[in-house]
Amino acid sequence: MNLDSNIPEGPLAEKWSNHKFNMQLVNPANRRKYNVIVVGSGLAGGAAAASLAEQGYNVSCFCYQDSPRRAHSIAAQGGINAAKNYQNDGDSVRRLFYDTVKGGDYRAREANVYRLAEVSSDIIDQCVAQGVPFAREYGGMLANRSFGGAQVSRTFYARGQTGQQLLLGAYAALSKQIGLGKVKMYNRHEMLDVVKVDGHAKGVIVRNMVTGEVSRHAADAVVMATGGYGNVFFLSTNAQGCNVTAAYRAYKRGAGFANPCYTQIHPTCIPVHGDQQSKLTLMSESLRNDGRVWAPMCKDVAQQIREGKLDPNAVAEDDRDYFLERKYPSFGNLAPRDISSRAAKETCDEGRGIAASGLGVFLDFRDAIKRDGRKAIEERYGNLFDMYNCITGADPYSTPMMIFPAVHYTMGGLWVDYNLQSSIPGMFVGGEANFSDHGANRLGASALMQGLADGYFVLPYTVGNYLAAQGISKAGTVTTEHPAFAEVESDVKSRIDALLSVNGTESPRSFHKRIGQIIWDKCGMARDKEGLLGAIKDIQDLRKEFWSNVRVVGDAHSLNPELERAGRVADFIEFGELMCRDALMREESCGGHFRVEHQTSEGEAKRNDDQFTFVGVWEYQGDDVDPALHKEPLIYEEVKLATRSYK
Ligand SMILES: Cc1cc2nc3c(=O)[nH]c(=O)nc-3n(C[C@H](O)[C@H](O)[C@H](O)COP(=O)(O)OP(=O)(O)OC[C@H]3O[C@@H](n4cnc5c(N)ncnc54)[C@H](O)[C@@H]3O)c2cc1C
Fold first, then answer.
1. How far is the CA of 72 from the centre of ligand 1 (A)?
2. Annotated catalytic residue: which of 69, 337, 514, 543?
3. Where are the alpha helices (DSSP H) in 352-471?
4. End-to-end CA distance of the chain, in Å?
5. Active site residue 337
6. At what angle do helices 561-585 and 483-501 cross, to 10 degrees?
7. 64 CB less than 6 Å from ligand 1?
8. Pocket test for ligand 1, best of 51, 237, 420, 432 (most atoms within 8 A of CB)
9. Could you say which of 3.90.700.10, 2.60.40.10, 3.90.1150.10, 3.40.50.2300 is the CATH number of the domain covering 266-407?
10. pLDDT bucket at 273, cuts 50 / 70 / 90
11. Which fold has domain 483-611?
12. Model pTM?
């Protein structure tokens, strides 16, 4: 597998501008001869499809929702980072770059992260031009707030609906191109496989989710922006539809899968309240600007609260443990997510957790309301408070929120080089679907930044460069008549038939819950060798059971959500095994990957830089064959590797 990262020569700060100059261009008149497929219409895919079409390429864009506006990106609450330094508080491209590399526990590729920080300001300009209603100060300047892992305020936001507003901006740009006929939008179409011709990605096979029709689509390049795979855990803050299928099928066709075990557990989510629950709800990290995280100092007090015998407001100041402020005084409540989540887990493991299950801690706004007044807090977080109130029935203005860590984001993804090209030439990957910029832990408000950086400012250059290098004589030459399309289409249909013909007794959803439980227990917030070895075996057994006992009701020729779910769950099961293998291989703790065997005496993650400063990239070798591990060494020229400290 070719893992050349194609990082351009030259000083870090000049790499992207030099590279842009050196890349080949496609003459505007020739662009209309090329077809590009974009799978995904969230922030990354929507931005890429709109920008490529604006440049003149013919774009076909696919999503499984009934509208691009419903992509999971719409759920993003808190904000988007950019190194504008509007606050004059010491921010810069270099600081955003540095914070991101450090936040990722030194497991991200320097050059990609620097470019991300560099284009961050352009994103804000682009979105303002589109009319995105970012919050503003009294004088009209865009407002900022702070997010975890940073000591500056660089997060732009639109109350607690930043993703929605950004997505409406991208959707407007996309709609313009749909109206002009430059983007053909395929809503309710699920990509089920990639087609390669002479080793290059040249198309996809999709299923129309309403009619069941399976169809072939050819193009000169394929962009995948299909989001993250957090739902492998069953319970997560992700939208119900999020899945790994597109990425996993690409993996099975030869795309390397990088760092699959790097998942992010977000510290501030509403605790699980029952075993029939199918979704968890995030309480945005922005709340930690004003909310203080605490748990009772001693177990007795915690127990009284759990039993409903003590009102948390009645707990005396001395009996409260503001554990993030105590353990990480410099960053306090804005310690990064991996660290804050582990601290909450530790507190609950000690028996000091609240909520009926004991799996919860408080996020308290009492002091902020006293200081700034209820109105100010309402203005900042009103919709989040309402959401909390609707779900729990409790009023967070008068009683502290209860929160607990939950699965939220996946840093792993398809391996890409500096051009965001996967190990399948001609297949590019953007947004959460790639592994590129966040290392072993993503900082808050950096996913929206990355998705839009990829979609608006990176892919439009690098896809063009690839097409130009292929030569104009090749434009549009591969059609769906090529035998490779018939072959892959037949594989897709056989798999659908196989799912429908098992005719067992257990629902796909039940299998989803079971794989989720294994992954949460053994490959969740803490992992160890014994647990991971056991999980691999359990997952292999579960996979056999799935294929002998799953019951998929309905047929293939109409709307069939059970069939869709079954296909996704089958992929989650196989993918879960890959996650465990990756976690087992990585004999260190870094970011969200916490191997209990590798921790400091204070319980912090202990990296092993000598042996593990690399990206772990897995290559599919066959259904019952172990995947091959490849390593892309991470070379740090600018940042000095150090023990990550937020104390
Ligand atoms: C509750 C919540 C709040 C968040 N808040 C923030 C925040 O404040 N700031 C921040 O930076 N990040 C936040 N994030 C993370 C961020 O929202 C996501 O990482 C980001 O939106 C992902 O964008 P994307 O374009 O990569 O993928 P998505 O928005 O998930 O879009 C994926 C697209 O791919 C399509 N797709 C997938 N598979 C297929 C297939 N097989 N066939 C066809 N189409 C397919 C989908 O239809 C969809 O259009 C939050 C995440 C959650 C869960």
1. 4
2. 337
3. 366-372, 374-392, 447-452, 459-470
4. 41
5. yes
6. 100
7. yes
8. 432
9. 3.90.700.10
10. confident
11. Methane Monooxygenase Hydroxylase; Chain G, domain 1 (1.20.58)
12. 0.96
